Amino acid sequence: MAGWKTRAEVAAIRKRYPAGSRIELDYMNEQGMPPGLKGIVKSVDDVGQLHMIWENGRSLALVSGADRFHRLPEPQAGKEAGKETEAEEIER
What we know:
Layout: H1 7-16, E1 22-27, E2 38-44, E3 50-54, E4 68-71, H2 86-91
Antiparallel strand pairs: 1-2, 1-4, 2-3
């Protein structure tokens, strides 16, 4: 990581990746974290790390500037009654 993030940088990360945002991993130098892995943002901490709930059950944080990832589009509104969201499925 290239130094500490300013409060403004952390605020921008929180705004861009609010809790519940869907993320797809492009690169993380960690075994068992392949490109294409998807997860949900749980929170962004005071240094700008995105704490995640990954579909593989892990909970590693993303570090902006070290890891590469992108936000996925939000699912279509109006899900069918009785169907779980992806976040609900991952949290189980």
